[in-house]
Amino acid sequence: MDKIKNIQAWEILDSRGNPTVAVRAELDSGACGEAAVPSGASTGKHEAVELRDDDKTRFNGLGVLKAVDNVNNAIAPELKGMDPTGQGKVDNRLLNLDGTENKSNLGANAMLGVSLAIAHAAAASAKKPLYSYLGCQNSYILPVPLLNILNGGKHASDSTDFQEFMIAPAGALSFAHALRMAAEIYQALKSLIKVQKFNTNVGDEGGFAPSLPSNQAALDLIIDAMQKAGYKPGVDCFIALDPASSEFYEDGTYVLAREGKRLSRQEMVQYYVKRTQEYPIISIEDGMAEDDWEGWRMLCEAIGDRVQLVGDDLYVTNIKRLSKGIEQKASNSILIKLNQIGTLSETIAAINMARQAGWTAVVSHRSGETEDVTIADLCAGLSTGQIKTGAPCRSERTAKYNRLLRIESELGTCAKYAGMEAFYNLK
Description:
alpha/beta, 13 helices
Protein backbone atom coordinates (compact mmCIF):
# COMPACT_ATOMS: atom_id res chain seq x y z
CA MET A 1 0.00 0.00 0.00
CA ASP A 2 1.33 3.42 -1.00
CA LYS A 3 2.09 5.85 1.82
CA ILE A 4 2.63 9.61 2.02
CA LYS A 5 6.37 10.22 1.89
CA ASN A 6 6.69 13.98 1.78
CA ILE A 7 4.61 17.16 1.56
CA GLN A 8 6.09 20.49 0.54
CA ALA A 9 4.52 23.94 0.11
CA TRP A 10 5.73 27.18 -1.41
CA GLU A 11 4.44 30.64 -2.21
CA ILE A 12 3.21 31.43 -5.73
CA LEU A 13 1.17 34.22 -7.37
CA ASP A 14 -2.52 34.10 -8.21
CA SER A 15 -4.25 35.80 -11.13
CA ARG A 16 -4.45 39.13 -9.30
CA GLY A 17 -0.72 39.15 -8.60
CA ASN A 18 -1.17 38.28 -4.92
CA PRO A 19 0.56 35.40 -3.13
CA THR A 20 -1.13 32.08 -2.55
CA VAL A 21 -0.14 28.57 -1.49
CA ALA A 22 1.00 25.71 -3.73
CA VAL A 23 1.54 22.20 -2.35
CA ARG A 24 3.20 19.04 -3.66
CA ALA A 25 2.57 15.62 -2.12
CA GLU A 26 4.92 12.72 -2.87
CA LEU A 27 4.18 9.05 -2.15
CA ASP A 28 6.53 6.14 -1.50
CA SER A 29 5.91 4.83 -5.02
CA GLY A 30 7.09 8.10 -6.54
CA ALA A 31 3.58 9.18 -7.50
CA CYS A 32 3.07 12.90 -6.94
CA GLY A 33 0.22 15.37 -6.82
CA GLU A 34 0.16 19.15 -6.83
CA ALA A 35 -2.47 21.76 -6.03
CA ALA A 36 -2.68 25.54 -5.87
CA VAL A 37 -5.16 27.41 -3.69
CA PRO A 38 -7.43 30.21 -5.02
CA SER A 39 -8.42 33.39 -3.17
CA GLY A 40 -11.63 35.43 -3.19
CA ALA A 41 -12.19 39.20 -3.34
CA SER A 42 -15.86 39.28 -2.40
CA THR A 43 -15.60 36.98 0.60
CA GLY A 44 -18.31 35.95 3.05
CA LYS A 45 -17.61 36.75 6.68
CA HIS A 46 -18.42 33.16 7.64
CA GLU A 47 -15.71 31.64 5.42
CA ALA A 48 -12.83 29.63 6.86
CA VAL A 49 -9.76 31.78 7.56
CA GLU A 50 -7.31 32.42 4.77
CA LEU A 51 -4.03 32.82 6.66
CA ARG A 52 -1.99 35.85 5.62
CA ASP A 53 1.30 37.15 7.07
CA ASP A 54 0.29 40.77 7.71
CA ASP A 55 3.94 41.69 7.10
CA LYS A 56 3.66 45.08 5.40
CA THR A 57 7.22 44.78 4.04
CA ARG A 58 6.14 41.91 1.75
CA PHE A 59 3.28 41.97 -0.75
CA ASN A 60 1.48 44.69 1.23
CA GLY A 61 0.93 42.23 4.05
CA LEU A 62 -0.65 39.56 1.84
CA GLY A 63 2.21 37.07 1.94
CA VAL A 64 1.44 33.45 2.86
CA LEU A 65 4.73 32.33 4.36
CA LYS A 66 2.97 31.46 7.63
CA ALA A 67 0.65 29.10 5.78
CA VAL A 68 3.59 27.64 3.85
CA ASP A 69 5.49 27.08 7.10
CA ASN A 70 2.45 25.40 8.61
CA VAL A 71 2.38 22.93 5.74
CA ASN A 72 6.10 22.19 5.82
CA ASN A 73 6.63 22.02 9.56
CA ALA A 74 3.29 21.42 11.29
CA ILE A 75 1.29 19.33 8.79
CA ALA A 76 3.83 17.33 6.76
CA PRO A 77 5.39 15.43 9.70
CA GLU A 78 1.93 14.48 11.01
CA LEU A 79 0.68 13.10 7.69
CA LYS A 80 3.84 11.23 6.72
CA GLY A 81 3.17 7.50 6.47
CA MET A 82 -0.60 7.86 6.09
CA ASP A 83 -2.58 6.08 3.38
CA PRO A 84 -3.31 8.74 0.70
CA THR A 85 -6.44 6.92 -0.44
CA GLY A 86 -8.06 7.50 2.93
CA GLN A 87 -9.11 11.06 2.11
CA GLY A 88 -11.53 11.26 5.02
CA LYS A 89 -8.86 10.20 7.52
CA VAL A 90 -6.32 12.60 6.03
CA ASP A 91 -8.76 15.49 6.22
CA ASN A 92 -9.82 14.58 9.75
CA ARG A 93 -6.17 14.63 10.78
CA LEU A 94 -5.90 18.12 9.31
CA LEU A 95 -9.00 19.25 11.19
CA ASN A 96 -7.69 17.85 14.47
CA LEU A 97 -4.29 19.46 13.95
CA ASP A 98 -5.94 22.83 13.40
CA GLY A 99 -8.38 22.44 16.26
CA THR A 100 -10.48 25.52 15.48
CA GLU A 101 -13.96 26.01 14.04
CA ASN A 102 -12.78 28.34 11.26
CA LYS A 103 -9.29 26.95 10.44
CA SER A 104 -7.64 30.03 11.97
CA ASN A 105 -4.73 28.07 13.40
CA LEU A 106 -3.23 26.39 10.33
CA GLY A 107 -5.20 28.41 7.76
CA ALA A 108 -7.75 27.04 5.30
CA ASN A 109 -5.34 27.89 2.47
CA ALA A 110 -2.65 25.65 3.98
CA MET A 111 -5.10 22.83 4.72
CA LEU A 112 -6.81 22.88 1.33
CA GLY A 113 -3.52 22.81 -0.56
CA VAL A 114 -2.52 19.67 1.34
CA SER A 115 -5.93 18.02 1.03
CA LEU A 116 -6.05 18.47 -2.74
CA ALA A 117 -2.40 17.61 -3.39
CA ILE A 118 -2.86 14.30 -1.59
CA ALA A 119 -5.99 13.54 -3.63
CA HIS A 120 -4.05 14.21 -6.83
CA ALA A 121 -1.20 11.99 -5.62
CA ALA A 122 -3.60 9.17 -4.76
CA ALA A 123 -5.15 9.42 -8.22
CA ALA A 124 -1.69 9.31 -9.80
CA SER A 125 -0.83 6.25 -7.72
CA ALA A 126 -4.00 4.56 -8.96
CA LYS A 127 -3.05 5.60 -12.50
CA LYS A 128 -6.37 7.39 -12.93
CA PRO A 129 -7.30 10.96 -13.82
CA LEU A 130 -8.69 12.75 -10.78
CA TYR A 131 -12.27 12.79 -12.06
CA SER A 132 -12.22 9.00 -12.44
CA TYR A 133 -10.58 8.53 -9.05
CA LEU A 134 -13.29 10.66 -7.42
CA GLY A 135 -16.18 9.27 -9.44
CA CYS A 136 -15.39 5.59 -10.06
CA GLN A 137 -18.37 5.20 -12.38
CA ASN A 138 -19.14 4.12 -15.92
CA SER A 139 -20.71 7.37 -17.10
CA TYR A 140 -20.29 11.02 -16.19
CA ILE A 141 -22.31 14.20 -16.53
CA LEU A 142 -20.46 17.21 -17.94
CA PRO A 143 -21.55 20.49 -16.37
CA VAL A 144 -23.39 23.47 -17.79
CA PRO A 145 -20.87 26.32 -17.56
CA LEU A 146 -22.00 29.59 -15.99
CA LEU A 147 -19.71 32.09 -17.68
CA ASN A 148 -19.21 35.53 -16.18
CA ILE A 149 -19.04 37.66 -19.32
CA LEU A 150 -19.79 41.05 -17.75
CA ASN A 151 -18.13 42.05 -14.47
CA GLY A 152 -19.16 44.61 -11.90
CA GLY A 153 -19.11 45.14 -8.14
CA LYS A 154 -15.82 44.21 -6.48
CA HIS A 155 -14.58 42.49 -9.63
CA ALA A 156 -14.46 45.69 -11.70
CA SER A 157 -14.34 49.32 -10.62
CA ASP A 158 -16.81 51.90 -11.97
CA SER A 159 -19.10 49.28 -13.47
CA THR A 160 -22.45 47.83 -12.34
CA ASP A 161 -23.75 47.32 -8.79
CA PHE A 162 -24.19 43.62 -9.48
CA GLN A 163 -20.96 41.66 -9.43
CA GLU A 164 -21.52 39.11 -12.17
CA PHE A 165 -23.66 38.76 -15.25
CA MET A 166 -23.32 35.22 -16.55
CA ILE A 167 -24.61 33.17 -19.43
CA ALA A 168 -25.72 29.55 -19.13
CA PRO A 169 -25.74 27.72 -22.50
CA ALA A 170 -28.06 25.00 -21.22
CA GLY A 171 -29.57 24.41 -24.66
CA ALA A 172 -26.29 23.08 -26.07
CA LEU A 173 -25.83 19.48 -27.19
CA SER A 174 -22.47 18.88 -25.50
CA PHE A 175 -19.99 20.68 -23.29
CA ALA A 176 -17.88 21.53 -26.34
CA HIS A 177 -20.95 22.98 -28.04
CA ALA A 178 -21.82 24.97 -24.90
CA LEU A 179 -18.34 26.46 -24.70
CA ARG A 180 -18.42 27.40 -28.38
CA MET A 181 -21.77 29.13 -27.89
CA ALA A 182 -20.40 31.03 -24.92
CA ALA A 183 -17.26 32.13 -26.74
CA GLU A 184 -19.30 33.37 -29.70
CA ILE A 185 -21.65 35.31 -27.41
CA TYR A 186 -18.64 36.74 -25.57
CA GLN A 187 -17.12 38.02 -28.82
CA ALA A 188 -20.49 39.42 -29.92
CA LEU A 189 -20.74 41.26 -26.60
CA LYS A 190 -17.30 42.75 -27.14
CA SER A 191 -18.31 44.11 -30.54
CA LEU A 192 -21.52 45.61 -29.12
CA ILE A 193 -19.62 47.30 -26.30
CA LYS A 194 -17.23 48.80 -28.85
CA VAL A 195 -20.10 50.11 -30.96
CA GLN A 196 -21.57 51.84 -27.90
CA LYS A 197 -18.18 53.49 -27.24
CA PHE A 198 -17.59 51.77 -23.88
CA ASN A 199 -14.18 50.35 -23.03
CA THR A 200 -13.57 46.63 -23.46
CA ASN A 201 -11.29 46.17 -20.48
CA VAL A 202 -11.97 43.00 -18.51
CA GLY A 203 -12.41 42.41 -14.79
CA ASP A 204 -10.84 39.84 -12.48
CA GLU A 205 -12.75 36.95 -14.01
CA GLY A 206 -12.36 37.89 -17.66
CA GLY A 207 -15.74 39.52 -18.18
CA PHE A 208 -16.01 42.95 -19.74
CA ALA A 209 -16.36 45.89 -17.37
CA PRO A 210 -18.03 48.80 -19.18
CA SER A 211 -19.23 51.77 -17.16
CA LEU A 212 -22.96 51.19 -17.66
CA PRO A 213 -25.77 53.45 -16.38
CA SER A 214 -27.73 50.62 -14.74
CA ASN A 215 -27.82 46.90 -14.00
CA GLN A 216 -30.66 46.52 -16.48
CA ALA A 217 -28.45 47.96 -19.22
CA ALA A 218 -26.11 45.00 -18.67
CA LEU A 219 -28.99 42.57 -19.13
CA ASP A 220 -30.03 44.28 -22.36
CA LEU A 221 -26.46 44.09 -23.70
CA ILE A 222 -26.25 40.37 -23.00
CA ILE A 223 -29.59 39.66 -24.71
CA ASP A 224 -28.39 41.62 -27.75
CA ALA A 225 -25.11 39.65 -27.72
CA MET A 226 -26.95 36.32 -27.68
CA GLN A 227 -29.05 37.35 -30.64
CA LYS A 228 -26.10 38.80 -32.52
CA ALA A 229 -24.27 35.48 -32.11
CA GLY A 230 -27.28 33.67 -33.55
CA TYR A 231 -28.74 32.16 -30.40
CA LYS A 232 -32.21 32.42 -28.93
CA PRO A 233 -32.41 33.79 -25.37
CA GLY A 234 -34.35 31.49 -23.07
CA VAL A 235 -33.98 28.53 -25.41
CA ASP A 236 -30.34 28.14 -26.36
CA CYS A 237 -28.88 30.27 -23.62
CA PHE A 238 -30.01 31.79 -20.32
CA ILE A 239 -28.83 34.49 -17.94
CA ALA A 240 -27.42 33.83 -14.47
CA LEU A 241 -26.75 36.62 -11.98
CA ASP A 242 -24.49 37.02 -8.98
CA PRO A 243 -25.42 40.38 -7.47
CA ALA A 244 -23.19 39.66 -4.41
CA SER A 245 -25.76 41.66 -2.49
CA SER A 246 -23.86 41.66 0.81
CA GLU A 247 -21.56 44.17 -0.87
CA PHE A 248 -24.36 46.72 -1.31
CA TYR A 249 -26.34 45.93 1.84
CA GLU A 250 -26.26 48.89 4.22
CA ASP A 251 -28.14 49.28 7.49
CA GLY A 252 -30.90 46.87 6.51
CA THR A 253 -31.38 48.21 2.98
CA TYR A 254 -30.06 47.32 -0.47
CA VAL A 255 -28.35 50.29 -2.14
CA LEU A 256 -28.21 50.19 -5.95
CA ALA A 257 -26.02 53.23 -6.45
CA ARG A 258 -26.02 52.95 -10.25
CA GLU A 259 -29.79 53.23 -10.26
CA GLY A 260 -30.11 55.68 -7.38
CA LYS A 261 -32.24 53.24 -5.39
CA ARG A 262 -32.34 52.27 -1.72
CA LEU A 263 -34.56 49.20 -1.37
CA SER A 264 -36.04 47.33 1.58
CA ARG A 265 -35.80 43.52 1.51
CA GLN A 266 -39.38 43.37 0.23
CA GLU A 267 -38.56 45.84 -2.55
CA MET A 268 -35.37 43.94 -3.41
CA VAL A 269 -37.37 40.73 -3.77
CA GLN A 270 -39.85 42.51 -6.04
CA TYR A 271 -36.94 43.89 -8.06
CA TYR A 272 -35.82 40.31 -8.80
CA VAL A 273 -39.38 39.16 -9.49
CA LYS A 274 -39.74 41.86 -12.13
CA ARG A 275 -36.35 41.15 -13.73
CA THR A 276 -37.05 37.41 -13.95
CA GLN A 277 -40.34 38.19 -15.68
CA GLU A 278 -38.60 40.46 -18.21
CA TYR A 279 -35.44 38.39 -18.92
CA PRO A 280 -34.61 34.67 -19.22
CA ILE A 281 -32.86 34.56 -15.85
CA ILE A 282 -32.42 30.97 -14.71
CA SER A 283 -30.17 31.49 -11.68
CA ILE A 284 -29.53 34.17 -9.05
CA GLU A 285 -26.63 33.78 -6.64
CA ASP A 286 -26.47 35.79 -3.42
CA GLY A 287 -29.58 37.72 -4.29
CA MET A 288 -29.94 38.69 -0.64
CA ALA A 289 -27.30 39.54 1.98
CA GLU A 290 -25.41 36.79 3.81
CA ASP A 291 -27.32 37.15 7.10
CA ASP A 292 -30.67 38.34 5.76
CA TRP A 293 -32.35 34.98 6.32
CA GLU A 294 -35.82 36.51 6.19
CA GLY A 295 -35.04 38.10 2.83
CA TRP A 296 -33.79 34.77 1.48
CA ARG A 297 -36.98 33.00 2.56
CA MET A 298 -39.09 35.70 0.92
CA LEU A 299 -37.14 35.45 -2.33
CA CYS A 300 -37.35 31.65 -2.38
CA GLU A 301 -41.08 31.74 -1.76
CA ALA A 302 -41.54 34.29 -4.55
CA ILE A 303 -39.51 32.69 -7.37
CA GLY A 304 -37.82 29.55 -6.01
CA ASP A 305 -39.97 27.24 -8.11
CA ARG A 306 -38.72 28.72 -11.40
CA VAL A 307 -35.31 30.28 -10.64
CA GLN A 308 -32.24 28.64 -9.14
CA LEU A 309 -31.40 30.59 -5.97
CA VAL A 310 -27.79 29.94 -5.04
CA GLY A 311 -26.39 30.60 -1.58
CA ASP A 312 -22.70 31.52 -1.57
CA ASP A 313 -21.89 33.93 1.28
CA LEU A 314 -24.99 32.53 2.97
CA TYR A 315 -23.59 28.99 3.26
CA VAL A 316 -19.82 29.27 2.54
CA THR A 317 -19.72 25.53 1.68
CA ASN A 318 -20.38 24.78 5.37
CA ILE A 319 -22.80 21.96 6.16
CA LYS A 320 -23.89 23.60 9.43
CA ARG A 321 -25.08 26.71 7.61
CA LEU A 322 -26.40 24.64 4.71
CA SER A 323 -28.45 22.52 7.12
CA LYS A 324 -30.05 25.71 8.47
CA GLY A 325 -30.83 26.86 4.93
CA ILE A 326 -32.47 23.55 4.06
CA GLU A 327 -34.53 23.63 7.24
CA GLN A 328 -35.69 27.21 6.64
CA LYS A 329 -36.20 26.75 2.87
CA ALA A 330 -33.98 29.77 2.34
CA SER A 331 -32.90 28.80 -1.19
CA ASN A 332 -32.72 25.81 -3.51
CA SER A 333 -29.02 25.66 -4.38
CA ILE A 334 -25.55 26.08 -2.90
CA LEU A 335 -22.35 27.44 -4.40
CA ILE A 336 -19.38 25.18 -3.74
CA LYS A 337 -15.98 26.80 -3.16
CA LEU A 338 -13.30 24.53 -1.76
CA ASN A 339 -11.29 27.28 -0.08
CA GLN A 340 -14.34 28.50 1.84
CA ILE A 341 -14.24 25.32 3.92
CA GLY A 342 -10.66 24.05 3.58
CA THR A 343 -10.76 20.30 2.81
CA LEU A 344 -11.93 18.09 -0.03
CA SER A 345 -13.96 15.85 2.29
CA GLU A 346 -15.97 18.74 3.74
CA THR A 347 -16.57 20.03 0.21
CA ILE A 348 -17.97 16.69 -0.95
CA ALA A 349 -20.12 16.48 2.20
CA ALA A 350 -21.73 19.82 1.31
CA ILE A 351 -22.43 18.65 -2.26
CA ASN A 352 -24.00 15.43 -0.98
CA MET A 353 -26.14 17.21 1.60
CA ALA A 354 -27.49 19.58 -1.04
CA ARG A 355 -28.33 16.72 -3.38
CA GLN A 356 -30.10 14.76 -0.67
CA ALA A 357 -32.31 17.81 -0.09
CA GLY A 358 -33.14 17.97 -3.81
CA TRP A 359 -30.98 21.07 -4.27
CA THR A 360 -28.41 21.78 -6.94
CA ALA A 361 -24.72 22.37 -6.21
CA VAL A 362 -22.70 24.77 -8.39
CA VAL A 363 -18.93 24.24 -8.17
CA SER A 364 -17.09 27.55 -8.39
CA HIS A 365 -13.70 29.19 -8.86
CA ARG A 366 -12.61 32.35 -7.01
CA SER A 367 -11.74 35.75 -8.46
CA GLY A 368 -8.10 35.21 -7.50
CA GLU A 369 -7.34 32.00 -9.41
CA THR A 370 -4.42 29.87 -10.55
CA GLU A 371 -3.87 27.43 -13.39
CA ASP A 372 -5.02 24.60 -11.09
CA VAL A 373 -7.91 22.70 -12.71
CA THR A 374 -9.09 20.58 -9.76
CA ILE A 375 -12.63 21.97 -9.84
CA ALA A 376 -13.08 20.75 -13.43
CA ASP A 377 -12.29 17.19 -12.35
CA LEU A 378 -14.46 17.57 -9.26
CA CYS A 379 -17.45 18.62 -11.39
CA ALA A 380 -17.00 15.76 -13.82
CA GLY A 381 -16.16 13.15 -11.20
CA LEU A 382 -19.14 13.94 -8.99
CA SER A 383 -21.42 14.85 -11.93
CA THR A 384 -22.50 18.03 -10.17
CA GLY A 385 -24.09 19.42 -13.34
CA GLN A 386 -22.91 23.03 -13.13
CA ILE A 387 -19.59 24.85 -12.97
CA LYS A 388 -18.84 28.53 -12.60
CA THR A 389 -15.32 29.54 -13.53
CA GLY A 390 -15.35 32.89 -15.30
CA ALA A 391 -15.41 34.18 -18.85
CA PRO A 392 -13.99 32.32 -21.85
CA CYS A 393 -10.97 34.61 -21.41
CA ARG A 394 -7.78 34.65 -19.26
CA SER A 395 -5.86 31.42 -19.04
CA GLU A 396 -6.59 30.78 -15.36
CA ARG A 397 -10.28 30.65 -16.36
CA THR A 398 -10.01 28.86 -19.71
CA ALA A 399 -7.73 26.23 -18.13
CA LYS A 400 -10.78 24.81 -16.34
CA TYR A 401 -12.94 24.86 -19.46
CA ASN A 402 -10.16 23.33 -21.54
CA ARG A 403 -9.76 20.58 -18.96
CA LEU A 404 -13.46 19.77 -19.29
CA LEU A 405 -13.10 19.66 -23.08
CA ARG A 406 -10.35 17.10 -22.65
CA ILE A 407 -12.38 15.07 -20.16
CA GLU A 408 -15.35 15.04 -22.55
CA SER A 409 -13.08 13.89 -25.35
CA GLU A 410 -11.54 11.14 -23.20
CA LEU A 411 -14.92 9.85 -22.06
CA GLY A 412 -16.54 9.82 -25.48
CA THR A 413 -19.97 8.17 -25.27
CA CYS A 414 -19.59 7.80 -21.50
CA ALA A 415 -20.03 11.57 -21.17
CA LYS A 416 -23.42 13.25 -21.15
CA TYR A 417 -23.94 17.01 -21.14
CA ALA A 418 -26.22 18.10 -18.30
CA GLY A 419 -28.15 20.70 -20.32
CA MET A 420 -31.49 21.73 -18.85
CA GLU A 421 -31.40 18.69 -16.55
CA ALA A 422 -28.79 20.58 -14.53
CA PHE A 423 -31.70 22.66 -13.21
CA TYR A 424 -33.71 19.63 -12.16
CA ASN A 425 -35.35 21.32 -9.18
CA LEU A 426 -37.11 24.00 -11.24
CA LYS A 427 -40.56 23.73 -12.81
